[in-house]
Every structure is written in C-alpha cells, then in structure tokens.
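Appendix C reproduces, verbatim, an entry submitted by the partner laboratory led by Prof. M.T., so that reviewers can inspect both the input and the predicted structure.
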Amino acid sequence: MELTLASEWEDNSEEWLIPQLLCDSLTLLSGEPKSGKTALACHLIRSLITKEPILNLIPTEKKITVAWMGFDSRWRREVKERVPELENHLYFATSRVYSAEEDWDSLANLMVEKKINYLVVDHLYGLSDGADLDRQNQAQSVFAPLLKLIETTGAGVLLLTQAGKSSGGRAAHSVALEGIARWLLRLTPSNTKKTLVALGNNAESKVFPIKLTPTKIALTEKVEKVHNEKPGTADGGLPERANFILDNAPPEVRGGVKILGKWFSEQNRGVNTPGSGRDAINNLIKGGLLAREGKRGRVIAGPKLVTALSACVVV
C-alpha cells in the first residue's frame, strides 16, 4: 500500500488512443452475434498501429504494439487473415480465464518486457468461464484481472462482449458490465449499414452510421450526437443534466458534492443557489445517474447514465 500526494502524482498517459473510439483504459465493445465485432476490432487495431485515420478520426502518434487474446475456434487464423500486414506488430496471447491469477500476472510482465501497450480480448464469455454475469459481484471479479493489468502495465484494453437481442447493442447481463468500463462502443446489427454508438463519462457521446465489412469501414452519413439538451430549459431531463455536468465540470470541482453543487448553480441550468446545486448533485447520485469513486472520490457517471443515454439514440 502506498500513499501519493495528489500534487506529486503526474499523469503521462493519453486519455484517447483514437478519439471517442478507444480510450487508454477499458473500452467495452458490444454487439449481437455475427454483427461484426471482431471485424471492427481489427479495423481499430489497424488504425492504432498504422496511424491511418478511422471514421475520420486520427489515432495517437504513440507507437502501439498489440496483443490479442481470443477464445473462439481458430481465432488466430481469423485475425491473421484479416490483418496480415500487422503480423510484426501483433502478438497472440494464450487464452486464459479470469480466475487464473498467476497467468494474468505473467501476461502483464510479458507485456512490459515486449513493450506491448494494448490488449484485445475476444470475448467476455471465454474470459468469464461460466461466471454468472447477471450478478454484480461476479461481473466485477471477471473484470478484475483486466483492471489490474491496466493499472500495472499502463496498457489499454478492448473487451468484446455480446449484446442482448434488440437492445440497441447494449451489453447483455448486469448493468455492472457497462458501468465498469471507461468507454462503451455499441454495434447494432444490419446486413450492410450498421450503427456504432460511442458513449461514456469522458467525452461527448455520438452515433456513427457505418458500413462495415472485414476489409472496409467507412461512414455512411454525418455523425450525430446521442443527445441534444435544449439550452435555456430549467431541467432538460435528469440524464441530460448529469451528462452536462460530466461534460463541462472542470476536474478541480468534481472532487466533492459541495463544490460541484456551487459550480452547477452558476451554470444557468435552473439551479440558482449553491445549496440547491448540492441537492441536485446528491439527487443525481441517489438516482444512479452520477456516482462517487469510492466513498468520497470524484464525481463520475453512475450506472444508470449509460442506460438512460442509450434510450435517446435514434438509429
């Protein structure tokens, strides 16, 4: 256990590896079976490694080396056939279930040794090894080795998972799955034109209408915001209020409800006093639209926010 003074801690990482597509922590990509999740993941790592834009977005200039852990039959052959030009920048990791703690520690050491700074896991059902993903405590246990690997190596992780039928691409099982991830990508099914919804608590949420095949990915229409709050209204809807706070509140005011409430009361959003601003923040926390990191940590998106946002998506 260590204690580090906040003023002495330096963050040298990049928050985005591909803006609004891949963050430097855990990105969860969900979609129905055969909707193109693996194909999309291949296009994303191709952009990371080659630095070619994807969906008009520019990837990080940082050198990226990727490890891929698959669980489906013949997954190595499938990946190599889809991205043959990346074989000198792509490692295949031995598939391991979440409970194999020593193996995950070994993988972390190997990633540091070989300077691998991104991991793709395809997909959650193989990783979870029969755990009950409808139970929050078991879902958190399944994610634990990935979160530890991110912390110890500084690498980002893309985790693929199945979506519920007719759910708009939302990850199946407990809402904890989406709550644990830092950024969400939801792929909706279609024979040709698909929709990729990107949302989370660290950027504006958007909808990408795309054409996706194993060899090509392209925008088919203009990118849209997931939600639009009407300015000048007193409320705009609680999810929109929570999202406004997450999108606009400076980091220095998100460390406490009182100071965040004071800031919110100054934003002309229908809350006029610091006290009512504090009450508004507490109500959003109680309603699950906002949350605290730990007992008194910074204010972040709550477990119900991503669900509420997805209901506003027009596909």
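The mean pLDDT is 86. Additional entries are available on request from the coordinating office.
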